[in-house]
Amino acid sequence: MISRLAGPHLRFLTGPKVTTGEAADDGTTRRSVIVSLAVNVIETAALGTAAWATGSVALRAQTAANAADLAVIAFLLIGVFRSDRPADDSHPLGFGRERFFWSLFAALGIFVGGAGLSLEAAVSSALHPSPVDHYAIAYLVLVTTVALDAFALAIALRPIRLQAAERGISLRTQAQWSTDPAAMTVAVGGTCAVVGAVAAAMGLVASQVTGSPAPDTVASAFIGLVLLVASVVLLRTNRALLLGRGVPLQMLREMRAIVAAQPGIVAVPDLFAVVVGASSLIVDGDVTFDDDLTVPGVEEAVARSAAALRERWPSINYVYLTPVSQARSRRARRTPRKTS
User: Fold this and answer.
1) Which class is 21-242 in CATH?
2) What is the CA angle 172-102-222, rounded to 5?
3) Neighbour-count burial for 171-209, b at 16+ CB within 10 Å, e otherwise
4) Segment among 166-170, 260-264, 267-271 with least mean pLDDT
5) Rounded mean pLDDT of the chain?
6) Domain map of the chain by residue range?
């Protein structure tokens, strides 16, 4: 019976669904952004004062990076709050991609404000070197900033660690396939801050030992390069999310296996998932059902499939399944049927 109903004009949808786990993750992300903002305000003031007192170009680079982070975090906060708006008629899938848009600006802020200013300071110092002094002040400020940055980084990594643990994957894999650019930007920025502070301290120690400002200049250049790499990685990640990135192939294979295992489903010729927001996915696919199933039976099979998928991946908000009698290309799925 169902074979007579199969075709591109018959689709079954389940959703939307928002889980308490997603809300908790989003709250953790918001908290990490706010903590990072508070830490950066304190650090920028302290580093700026120390850079002025010591003449250290590495501390100036760290000050520039932290000042750029203030703009970065402002963009992230805008994205986090605007993406939380409920779906409406003009945006039926919600505003999740707002976070991708504003996180893209945050990555540009790291590129221009952090990496650009740090490298500019290094070039300027190399051309016009100046002595470094008042090392005690610099060390005190750097130790304080490392402690604050480590605290902020631990909070920023918490949602990423939780998501990795829930999915049973490594932290590196979760970071690579994360759908929350705000959390990733804060984590990457925090890591760069810790690495930059350590590099600045090493440059100062070397300058104090040798009596030359060259190591301090090299540390500034290193900080700039670290920020440059980080910004490129974040820009690529946000670009992929804005363009409608899918999910890892292994995850897609598991999704197809879960749907195919449901009673009444004969085969799953095609299935894909698209990221539409932070911790928000849409699953769409073609499914071949048992010919003996009635329409209510198909609806039950689709509901079971959606429930099984969401049990494994709570971030799935919508599930679209189309009954088909045979496999078809995705291009054919999106080509309207001509009528006479």
Assistant:
1) mainly alpha
2) 55
3) eeebbebbbbbbbbbbbbbbbbbbbbbebbbbbbbebbe
4) 166-170
5) 79
6) 2-16+247-334, 21-242
Residue 184 and residue 234: Cα distance in Å, rounded? Answer: 8
Q: Are the C-beta atoms of 64 and 192 separated by less than 8 Å?
A: no
The tokens 């980084």 sit on which residue?
153
In whole angstroms, give the CA distance from residue 40 to residue 122: 22
In single-letter form, the type of residue at position 163 comes to Q
Return the exposure string of 94-121: e unless at least 16 CB atoms fall within 10 Å of the residue's CB, then b. bbbbbbbbbbbbbbbbbbebbbbbbbeb
Question: Is 80 within 8 Å of 182 (Cβ atoms)?
Answer: yes
Is residue 128 over pLDDT 90?
no
Residues 6+ apart with CB under 8 A from 256: 268, 271, 285
Report the length, in residues, of the chain. Answer: 340
2-16+247-334 and 21-242 share one CATH topology?
Answer: no
Looking at the domain 2-16+247-334, which fold is it?
Answer: Alpha-Beta Plaits (3.30.70)
Per-residue model confidence as pLDDT tens digits over 29-81: 777 778 878 888 888 888 888 888 888 877 877 787 777 778 778 888 888 78
